[in-house]
Amino acid sequence: MVIPAPPGKMGPVPLPAPELLVGQSPPRLDGLDKLLGRARYLDDLTFEGQLWGRTVRSTVAHARIVLIDFDPSYDWSGVTRVTARDIPGENVVQLIDDDQPCLAWDVIRHFDEPVALLACADREKLEEALRHVRVEVEPLPAVLDPAASTQVFKHYRYEREAGRLAEAFARAHRVVEGSYRVRHQEQLYLEPNAVCAVPRADGGILLHGSMQCPFYVQRALKRLLALDDERVAVVQTVTGGGFGGKEEYPSMIACHAALLARAAGRPVKIVYGRGEDLASTTKRHPGVVSHRTAVAADGTLLGGEIDVLFDGGAYSTLSPVVLSRGAIHAPGAYRWPACRVDARAVATNTPPNGAFRGFGAPQTLFAVELHMDRIARELGLDPLDLRRRNALRPGDRTATGQELRESVSALEVLEAVAERSGWASGRAQPKGDGPKRRGLGLSLVLHGAGFTGSGEVKLKARAGVELTPTGCRVLAASTEIGQGTITIFAQLVADALGLPLGAIEVAAPDTSRVPDSGPTVASRTCMVVGGTLEGAARALHRRLAAYAAEVYGGDAERIACVGGTFREGARAIATFEEVARRQLADRGPLVIVEQYSHPPGIEWDDDEFRGDAYPVYAWAATAVEVEVDLDSYETRVLRVVTAQDVGKAIHPLLCVGQIEGGTVQALGYALMEEVVHRDGRVANDRLQSYLIPTALDAPPIETILVENRYPHGPRGAKGVGELPMDGPAPAVAAAVLDATGALVPELPITPDRLRAALKLGAAPTASLGETPLGAAE
Amino acid sequence: MISRIPVTSARSLPEAYALLEKPPPGLRVLAGGTDLMVQLQARVGLERIGHVLDIWGLRELRFVDRAEGLLRLGALATYGDLRDSPLVRERLPALAELSREVGARAIQSRGTLGGNVCNASPAGDTLPLLIAAGASFVVGGPRGERRIAADQFFVAYRRTALAPDELFLRAELPELAPHERLVYRKVGTRRAQSISRTLLALRGGALGGRLAGVRVAAGGVAPVPLRCRLAEAALEGRPVDALAVAAARAALEGEIRPISDLRGSADYRREVTGNLLARLLPELAG
């Protein structure tokens, strides 16, 4: 249910047309095809002469490779074999530190690491062949506990008024300490990773695949195959979900398919089964976050020290940037007069962890939010009042020294949730004295929209529009992965041109045809790419208005297309189609590509880790009511009320869909989702044992959209994709605390962990050891 | 390779028995396939499967009826059949209710009672209920038919009393006397499509304020679905009071043998199974 938003502050965005589409919820452009089963996912496509590809993986966490032995007695006819020695370029999956090989050659650094590749036209023969490859190894000691790791991928340390920290602790009414632990979470897109590489006559590669970031894949292929731009094209196929899980991993599987395709001279398709996908692809970083906080008697935060430790897995992949977002969000949505954050991402011999909706923030926000409830409990304060007292307000500075100027909504979302959840009466209610106890908890979070720090400045995202005879075509590398990209792009562009939605087409992301708009990640698609597209569409509109003035007469400045017709005031000049056809015939194709530019005054210092970490933040408060069964220690979420400030909901229904979906995914993180490793290997690599919430586990969710417009976003929009992932888990933990008096400092809050916390009687601290587990059935 | 495993699809019981006259090595029986197909896909124990006897088409094994005070459930009665059968809902509502909790709707349409029994998972949902209900299993083969009590059927971890040439044909459940109830509670891993962490089933009633004919069975807490005779002994003839509950609980916690696995620790399972007993007992007397 959507509650009408309170009136937002209108940004000074001049609009060429009345609000026709933005703010409405037209049917999504890809909806009908998906509903009717017409959408063709990678595995639905057949390529002539296609082979199937398969990956030979390591069966040890850390070892030196002695020999990769292809059984000489086996009949290898019809089977293409590839090892690292067949790589024409560099054996690396290009990302940040470039430390991950495409195929392990000398050393295996994690279980299920790719070692060799096979392709065959017959899938059963392929499975058989797989069992005739033997990787002979000399085992090396494996580091599985991040606390014991000596290899640091990245270390950030930043401070605010550090000189005053000692003083803050000295004069504190109370110093509250707590340690919080989070585990691996799987993205669990419906469609597993899948690609098909097609060799081209010019020695190049055409790669089709399920992915979020076509240009990441293209760059990885170029480096691996030592090819130039012209000879590597990457096309995103209809993609069944990503959640960050298809940010970096598709580069790996694409490299594998491309190597096989070049070796075989035929198209090679690789489609992971669920088990392979669960066992070998990236997960959310597990970690431990420790807080030491100086507070005044009234709950005012005086100073804090925060330590963050993330387990990056065997290769650094995206860990440096996941860590920076985690570190920046670690102080939460609060004012810290003095603060120090020390954050490390370290290596272990486990499959690399990577991008997942929220990107480091859900981990550190869980810690700071549950810590706030610990402080409230120790001080005997209402957790809502504690948050009210310390929440960031306009004009405040964050821990990186960023002055919050625009669209700052911590208090607004907090009050909205307090009211709609019935906070005061809900907290006052008896918790029950039978086996079932009720509790109410809440959280307040912020989420930086767009890339962290100078990411956008370095990236220089480009996107554009191309005039068609009846409207225009959107050219962007941003991918539709179920979240609604193409629909909101069409809405923004249609409004900017004064056209109906049907006049806009969105080109499939193909690196040979669209400009590089950057990856589809970081809640940046709408704000950054959508804004750039809107600018390009406005420029197109100006060009056409000028052309119409030239051809039909009139003042170009006063001519605007409204409802598909160019008008000057009340006078209709010509339809868009007439102008477009004439322009195309007269002057040829018209493509306008614009480059994103950061709003003025946004500055970030990478070396000092200071300044404007993000151009703007989205805000959310979430209240969760739970029922805990003390017979079985099960926690059931009864309802969720959440208020989220997204700036402007371009498509309110999709926006609420993002929030509801993200909330349920976060409830899974809170209560049941946990990838368990045994000796470095994923033990629950199937959906029977890796549990996500079912429809019955999903509670009623009341979403309150708050629209405090961001003047530099398209129509005021900020980001929404990741925001709903941040708040529910700590709110669940706080509700369990309210219901039972037990603070469970570790996610997920399984019945076993709740039982342990209750048996301890006091709030336990998270240990760093492995969870003891026996043999699975 | 999977496609090279020979499959015999029997169209009648005699046809199935003909194959069982001389059972091929590594014979596996395929009913609804909800366990076997998953094992094949995961290649678990693939090398031990030498031949598949597909009995899904044996219509004569798919029934729910009532005869001589017994509720009879055919081997191929699906969870969906049990869930929807007016007879089951009237006579043994707990079984209808439990069938609704097994897997997803698609699994309920395909998974069978016989498959669940013969797969003999210690966490098989219907198994403790069948044991507590006092069911007996009728099995048959070329050598004829015989009857095995449900609590004698599960002999070791995933091993049953079935001979290699026998098929499970039907379960027969005595109906409840007016003072009796059959109750259960499953603690799964989530609210749907979940496997039991523990499941406890009780049958019995109170006569003159004292428990009579109590049967207790538990799932997910031992290598086999377990009849809990010590707990039964602690309850029989006793009023449902704190003393009896404590004694039965102690007996139950002593006789179950839970392990720690992905779904929960042994300590957790032991305590929660005891909690379920304490919670369910008053329902028998009520």
What does this structure look like?
The complex is a heterodimer of chains A (777) and B (286). In chain A, 28% of the residues lie in helices and 25% in strands. Chain A is an alpha+beta fold. Chain A has a seven-stranded mixed sheet, sandwiched between helices. Chain A has 19 helices and 31 strands. In chain A, α7 (319-329) packs parallel to α8, α8 runs parallel beside α18 (728-740) and α16 (652-671) crosses α18. In chain A, β14 (287-295) and β15 (301-313) form a beta hairpin. Chain A has four domains: 43-142 and 207-271, Aldehyde Oxidoreductase, domain 3 (Alpha-Beta Complex), CATH 3.90.1170; 144-185 and 283-390, Aldehyde Oxidoreductase, domain 4, CATH 3.30.365.10; 407-449 and 616-675 and 684-742, Aldehyde Oxidoreductase, domain 4 (2-Layer Sandwich), CATH 3.30.365; 454-595, 2-Layer Sandwich (Aldehyde Oxidoreductase, domain 4), CATH 3.30.365. The radius of gyration of chain A is 27 Å and the shape is globular. Chain B has 286 residues and is α+β, with helices and mostly antiparallel strands. Chain B folds into three domains: 2-54, Uridine Diphospho-n-acetylenolpyruvylglucosamine Reductase, domain 2, CATH 3.30.43; 59-174, Uridine Diphospho-n-acetylenolpyruvylglucosamine Reductase, domain 3 (2-Layer Sandwich); 180-285, Enolase-like, domain 1, CATH 3.30.390.50. Chain B is 36% helix and 26% strand. Chain B has helices at 13-21, 36-42, 79-84, 86-91, 93-101, 105-110, 113-119, 126-132, 150-153, 229-235, 242-255, 266-285, and strands at residues 7-9, 27-30, 51-54, 64-67, 70-74, 136-141, 144-149, 154-156, 159-160, 167-174, 180-187, 198-207, 210-219, 226-227. In chain B, α10 (229-235) runs antiparallel to α11 (242-255). Classes of the chains: A alpha+beta (777), B alpha+beta (286).
